[in-house]
Amino acid sequence: MPLFIKNSVIYKFFDKILIKPYNNSLLKRNLEKILNCLKQSFIYKCVENYLNKNPYFLNSLVYRFIRKVVKIIDKIADFLHKAIKKWLLGSKSFFELRSIKYFTKEKKILLLIVLLGAFNIAYSFTGIIFDTINLYVSYGILALTLILFVFSKSTNCFKQSFIYKIFKSW
């Protein structure tokens, strides 16, 4: 245990009030005797043997078949991962996303607009497919995207706005 914990007031308090009295108590000695008797009992040995035995399903044909199928799927997924990683590392979009920290504010806002638009399209399509679309959410994201587009084209426009001045004053 680290020294800074052993020297703390809280640890010393618990050590003096709980730990040392318990270590020297009659309760601890009796619990150790009961635990020793339990470990030598027939029930304890039966439970321990049951828990330590090899599972039966390891010899099952279904389990072996599932493992082989999963092994094949894992190899296919590993191949796809390596191929896609190799293709993406040389792509222009990878280098653009990697240099995002050097973007100007306008370019970052344009990237956010593209991501919000893609999210809105995905949300709308899945909502239509599963018949759970909420048009208010979709229109809200669309409005946010359009507002951000206007702000990205004219940064001076929103710097003169009342809302920008309120947020800037905080």
What does this entry look like structurally?
This protein is mainly α and about 170 residues long. Helices cover about 80% and strands about 0% of the residues. The protein has ten helices and no strands. Helix 7 runs antiparallel to helix 8. The protein is extended, with a radius of gyration of 32 Å. The two termini are about 45 Å apart. The model has no long low-confidence stretch (mean pLDDT about 85).
Short description:
By secondary structure, the protein is mostly helical. It is built from 10 helices and no strands.
Radius of gyration from the alpha-carbon trace, in angstroms: 32 Å
Distance between the termini: 46 Å
- Which structural class best describes the helix and strand composition? mainly alpha
The biggest beta sheet reads:
none
Note the beta-strand portion: under 5%
Number of extended strands: 0
Which percent range fits the helix content?
over 70%
What best-fitting shape do the alpha-carbon axes yield? extended
Number of helical runs? 10
